[in-house]
Design goal:
This protein is α/β, with parallel strands linked by helices. The protein has twelve helices and eight strands. Strands 1-2-3-4-5-6-7-8 form an eight-stranded parallel β-barrel, surrounded by seven helices. 40% of the residues are buried. It binds flavin-adenine dinucleotide. Flavin-adenine dinucleotide binds next to strand 4, strand 7 and helix 11.
């Protein structure tokens, strides 16, 4: 079955967009802010907090980058107006990181300030390895003047050991995740290119370091074993539930999400919405262990 999954995952670029869209509906709140707000209300009512993500990455013009920033301003206003328990996540490439770093920083700062104005927070997603240094620099500059900004780090990268050390010299808000982009093996910790569970010891080492350094950790994973280890680690180090939260993606491993929440831990759901759904959707489908069955059924119209 794993062979078919790998085969199907490789075939994704050739699958008609309409089928990808249909299969990825569970991972995305909808195309509009109104649909996103409705989904956040449901999740809040179920006891989850949320981070909202406007879908889109790697824009090509200053105008598109400006538009992304405006979209986020609207999201912040909707969160305020609807009294939602939600923060936001941004992708720097959608603010022009790859063609104008100064503009990207200006726009990111505008978003962070707007969030500050409504007592809200912003997390910078970590994108592929060409962006890592630039996104860490962006975070470092922003947090000089703002406390309400966090950064995601990827445990599959070797360099993360050094990055975590540097970033936690002063307590930070960090999201630790395994990492999703297809990277060259030379960047990855041993075994990560073929076995996701090989990342776990590195993930735990980073969480341990953050806990010891007094940083807030968002533990972003659907790996049940890893979650158990993080809980045990927090107990071992006497870390209270205010110093960490679990984060999971909309539509992924909902029974696990419910279980962790029912154990009394804070769980934040990453809720993407918007019309630029393709890149995000294909990454989610690639990770779905049941992808072969889903795709095969969709392709024969079942
Ligand atoms: C809140 C949040 C924010 C994230 N932010 C970033 C980021 O900024 N940068 C980045 O590179 N990555 C990010 N990721 C993605 C992350 O790096 C992983 O790729 C993703 O979470 C899957 O890894 P895992 O830790 O769940 O472990 P895995 O070992 O990959 O998966 C554990 C189990 O989860 C289940 N599962 C995982 N994904 C799916 C899916 N799509 N459909 C169905 N089942 C699934 C499978 O059963 C699998 O066995 C984020 C993830 C989360 C939860």
């Amino acid at each position: 079955m794993q062979f078919f999954n790998v085969l199907m995952a490789r075939a994704i670029p050739f699958v008609p967009r309409a089928i990808i869209q249909k299969l990825s509906r569970r991972y995305i709140a909808g195309a509009t802010l109104g649909e996103a707000v409705a989904r956040v209300k449901q999740l809040n009512a179920q006891g989850f907090c949320v981070t909202l993500d406007v879908l889109g990455e790697a824009v090509c013009t200053p105008h598109q980058a400006e538009q992304t920033a405006l979209d986020y301003m609207q999201v912040l206003e909707a969160i305020r107006a609807n009294q939602l328990d939600a923060s936001i996540s941004i992708k720097p490439t959608s603010l022009g990181l790859l063609f104008d770093r100064q503009q990207c920083e200006r726009l990111a700062e505008r978003i962070v300030e707007a969030a500050e104005g409504c007592n809200n927070a912003v997390c910078i997603d970590m994108e592929d390895v060409h962006c890592t240094t630039k996104e860490i620099d962006l975070f470092t500059r922003l947090r000089t003047d703002h406390d309400n900004v966090g950064l995601a780090l990827q445990a599959y990268l070797k360099r993360t050991y050094e990055d975590v050390q540097l970033l936690t010299r002063k307590p930070a808000t960090l999201r630790i995740c395994k990492g999703i982009y297809v990277e060259e093996r030379s960047h990855l910790v041993n075994g990560a290119w073929h076995d996701r569970s090989a990342i776990n010891t590195h993930f735990l080492a980073h969480v341990r370091h953050c806990f010891s350094a007094g940083s807030f950790v968002a533990v972003a994973t659907h790996d049940g074993v890893l979650i158990e280890h993080v809980i045990a680690l927090a107990q071992e180090l006497g870390i209270g539930t205010r110093q960490f939260e679990f984060q999971m993606l909309l539509g992924v491993c909902e029974p696990l999400r419910d279980k962790v929440s029912s154990m009394g831990f804070s769980v934040r759901i990453y809720v993407p919405f918007g019309s630029d759904w393709y890149g995000y959707s294909t990454r989610r489908l690639n990770e779905n262990p049941a992808i072969a069955g889903h795709l095969a059924r969709a392709l024969v119209g079942l």
